[in-house]
TrEMBL record:
Superkingdom per UniProt: Archaea
InterPro entries: HTH_bacterioopsin
Annotated stretches, region: Disordered: 189-234
Keyword Transport: no
Assigned keywords, A-Z: Transcription, Transcription regulation
Record field: compositional bias (Acidic residues): 203-223
Protein name stated in the entry: Bacterio-opsin activator HTH domain protein
Length: 234
């Protein structure tokens, strides 16, 4: 259907599979929504098409299909398909989360059903809580609560260190490790932006220089101006 209307967008909001049928609620966007809906009602694989809401260039449609291949494949492999699911020009972008053997089973089901697919990206999801040690997490939360990461800062590195009872140098080094871990995990989670495990020496040197500058700025912020001694005229 989406191949017949390449300019249309089909976003599946929810979907429920059955052995002989599938039910889904989708959001349709197109220049001519009426033409797309008419074609959907005439499609042999769609047993029922109900318009739930309709506006200018957009409609919410409930469908019942007699060939829920994607949903059946996911169900038989024991993998839930993450919603919403976008379909455009004959291609569905599918995200699944599960064990390696179940993901492999899903690919096998696709092959059995004659569905062409391409794996764009595979990554291991890590529990954010497990990224940091208890000590790192406690220090990070304290720094956030004290306003160390506010702009402008409401507390200095020394104040954070004093609050948790550690040396300023230890506090600085720990927060640097926390920041690197959190930032790398965030960037690695961006679409099509996996990070390589290796970091060249130049990058580390630049990062260390940046850290040094940050500490210098902190030192300047904490330093108190030296009072000028009064001058006496003879």
């Amino acid at each position: 259907m989406s191949r017949d209307f390449p300019d249309a967008g089909f976003r599946v909001l929810t979907a429920v599979p059955d052995e002989s049928a599938g039910f889904a609620l989708l959001r349709l966007t197109a220049r001519d929504v009426g033409a797309v809906i008419a074609a959907m009602r005439a499609h042999e694989a769609l047993a029922k098409v109900s318009v739930m809401a309709r506006g200018d260039g957009v409609a919410t449609v409930r469908i019942e299909t007699t060939a829920p291949l994607l949903l059946v494949a996911a169900k038989r492999s024991g993998l839930p398909i993450e919603m919403p699911l976008d379909i455009g020009n004959g291609v569905a972008e599918v995200d699944v989360t599960g064990e390696h053997d179940r993901v492999a089973a899903l690919g096998k089901r696709f092959d059995e059903m004659g569905l062409d697919y391409e794996v764009e990206r595979v990554r291991q999801r890590v529990d954010p809580v497990r990224l940091l040690t208890d000590r790192q997490r406690e220090l990070l939360l304290t720094a956030v609560e004290l306003g160390y990461y506010d702009v402008p800062r409401r507390s200095t590195l020394t104040e954070v260190a004093d609050h948790v009872g550690i040396a300023k140098s230890t506090c600085s080094e720990t927060l640097q490790r926390v920041e690197r871990t959190v930032v790398r995990e965030f960037v690695d989670d961006l679409p099509n932006r996996p990070l390589d495990g290796a970091v060249d020496g130049t990058g580390d040197s630049e990062a260390d220089a940046a850290d040094t500058d940050s500490e210098a700025d902190d030192t300047e912020a904490e330093a108190e101006p030296t009072p000028t001694p009064p001058r006496h005229r003879p």
